[in-house]
């Protein structure tokens, strides 16, 4: 069975709170979706806003390859003739080869939201679809609130889609607009609709977290179009997430879809769309999330070393994702073995030092350290425990002076005494805060001996209070990200004193950089 994928990232996705694409954003996403081989690409509602009108103008320059561009809008206004309805005229003017119109199929909506008669709504559906067919468009009829309508007044809901079918709709898409239906209700609705039209689609919202399940059961029942969005973006809780729907259809249900050869590009597509939407990618998103194939528990890592299938439902490469085994207080020696190459450990060293290392990690995480996301500090700990840490400098002494002026200005100055081999360097520096002053003074001292340290830049500084109840005596965790060229260095420090925690994270980043970039010169 073949199923067509209809993407509405640029229309329903743009209805998500927090998303506001520019025309250029929409064109960028469109290009990626076309390259991915999506069957239908809904570009927006021309006429609803100038941006969408412009998008359809600009989209004329795109090479759509096999993807069909769809323009979205509603059935005619209850009191207008189709040929006078600006909404419908804009849909035609967009020149999109596919027009998708939504029409009411829940009697409650007809009478309350549309404020018209049930009879007039049937006419609106018939006339709209027929009008668009007459001008040669492929027409998708989105039966809005179909499942709620089918529950409340099944006879009327079916009459609505009968009108669309009679008028020549190419696809009738049943919408779970409020996202409140259960899979068994979807099945019943699709079964009934298939008696009216052979080409039924599903558009499921995620308010009950069932959008993907509801889309799959619709396909199992005979639906041949699935509407959804990349990353599930959409009105309220979003739409069926195509990043889950697509691999489930291909890998779990053996359904044929046109983009199947591009499945390995799915993770990249998902991250690209979140980047353009200016939203953090959800790390826990199934299939494409950063944690979707990250294993933390020691028991899991141990089994994975023996057989990858023990804790993975699919090989991550199939969707372009990758496997990771993290190291934390949930780890055992197996987690270290898995990462031995990255940690610079031989199998022999893991056998010798594994238990000691795991115990050190667990003890430090108990104090508040977190090594997931602080890989450089972890590497230094590994070097220390295995006797392979040659520290490039030692801080003999450091002093911080914080002066609060009469006018309220706060001045910070740091003085440090650093030893590199037999040389002692004494420096002072001010800064726009105590941590910055310390950083400046330390670098000033070390730059004399390690000039390439100038490549290392501090790019992120995060503080997290670990036991909020202790107020100003609380333990804090400082995470620092520094970068040297393309590579980022992540370190951590923990203390009840924020300066001490910062200094620990800061020195870890300097030590890590120096030992990885000055082999042979480090004392
Ligand atoms: C289920 C869905 O997600 S459908 C897509 C929803 N998306 C959007 O609403 C985003 C884009 N929408 C918009 O920009 C605006 O709502 C517009 C331009 C479409 C309309 O704006 P306005 O004319 O100011 O109307 P407003 O938004 O206040 O109300 C919607 C109108 O559409 C009517 N309407 C709703 N559904 C339908 C339908 N299927 N067929 C015809 N008219 C409809 C409503 O009855 C209401 O008409 P009224 O103003 O005569 O009462
Ligand atoms: C058409 C649509 O977006 C809906 O019914 O949810």
Principal-axis shape equals elongated
Distance between the termini: 68 Å
Q: What is the number of independent domains?
A: 3
Small molecules (ligands, ions, cofactors) in the structure? acetyl coenzyme *A, pyruvic acid
CATH class of the largest domain equals Alpha Beta
CATH topology of the largest domain: TIM Barrel
User: Approximately what portion of the residues adopt beta-strand conformation?
Assistant: 15-25%
Give the number of helices.
Answer: 18
Are there runs of 5+ residues with pLDDT below 50, and where?
none
Largest beta-sheet details: 8 strands, parallel, barrel
| Structural classification | alpha/beta
State the strand order across the main sheet: 1-2-3-4-5-6-7-8
Helix fraction, binned, reads 25-40%
CATH superfamily of the largest domain: Aldolase class I
What's the overall average pLDDT, rounded?
96
Name given to the CATH architecture of the largest domain: Alpha-Beta Barrel
Overview of the structural elements:
Pfam families: HCS_D2, HMGL-like, LeuA_dimer. InterPro entries: 2-isopropylmalate_synth_dimer (IPR013709), AIPM/Hcit_synth_CS (IPR002034), Aldolase_TIM (IPR013785), Citramal_synthase (IPR005675), LeuA/HCS_post-cat (IPR054691), LeuA_allosteric_dom_sf (IPR036230), PYR_CT (IPR000891). This is Citramalate synthase. Pathway: Amino-acid biosynthesis; L-isoleucine biosynthesis; 2-oxobutanoate from pyruvate: step 1/3. This protein is of the alpha/beta class. The protein has 3 domains: 4-277, TIM Barrel, CATH 3.20.20.70; 294-367, no CATH class; 394-517, Double Stranded RNA Binding Domain (2-Layer Sandwich). The chain has helices at 23-36, 50-59, 86-93, 107-113, 118-134, 146-152, 154-166, 183-194, 211-221, 242-252, 266-277, 298-306, 333-338, 340-343, 347-367, 375-385, 434-447, 498-517, and strands spanning 4-7, 40-44, 68-74, 98-104, 138-144, 171-176, 200-204, 225-228, 294-295, 324-325, 394-404, 410-420, 423-431, 457-465, 476-484, 487-495. Pyruvic acid (PYR) binds at residues 12, 102, 142, 144, 175, 177, 203, 205. Residues 15, 45, 48-49, 74-75, 77, 102-104, 113-114, 144, 177, 235 line the site of acetyl coenzyme *A.
